[in-house]
Amino acid sequence: MNQAKPCIKCLLSEMKDADLMEVIRNGIEGIRPQDRSSEKDYQERLNLCRSCDNLISGTCLSCGCYVEIRAAIKTGRCPLKKW
Ligand code: SF4
């Protein structure tokens, strides 16, 4: 049987999993608009996560959070101070 392996260095949005996409969507929608990062900051943060060894399947190993939700919070911080 040929089972698809999870993408280790991917964000959740890149894993094409409908349930995970909903987790992200619901997480971001739960953030008040005035508390959300700008799109520019959001993408810059996620690019830093993509190149970080602590990103495993959309989760930050340093803090245990889904980075796509944490990065969407204006006051969110990287535990290693990369953003
Ligand atoms: S939040 Fe920071 S430590 Fe965690 S994956 Fe992103 S860049 Fe790496």
Give the biggest sheet. Answer: 2 strands, antiparallel
- Strand neighbour order, sheet with most strands: 1-2
Residue-averaged pLDDT: 88
Could you say which overall geometry the principal axes of the C-alpha atoms support? globular
Helix content: 25-40%
Number of helices: 3
Total discrete domains: 1
Report the order of strands and helices: HHEEH
Over the alpha carbons, how many angstroms does the gyration radius reach?
Answer: 13 Å
Annotation, overall tally of beta strands: 2
Distance between the first and last residues' Cα: 41 Å
**Class derived from helix and strand content:** mainly alpha
The residue ranges in which pLDDT falls below 50 over 5 or more consecutive positions are none
Ligands in the model, by name, code or SMILES, are:
iron/sulfur cluster
**Percent of residues in beta strands?**
under 5%
Your description of this structure?
- With 83 residues, this protein is mainly α.
- It has one domain (12-70).
- Helices cover 34% and strands 5% of the residues.
- The chain has helices spanning 18-29, 39-50, 67-70; strands spanning 55-56, 59-60.
- Strands 1-2 form a two-stranded antiparallel ribbon.
- A hairpin with a 2-residue loop joins strand 1 (55-56) and strand 2 (59-60).
- The chain is globular, with a radius of gyration of 13 Å.
- The mean pLDDT is 88.
- Residues 48-49, 52, 54-55, 60, 62, 67, 78-80, 82 line the site of iron/sulfur cluster.
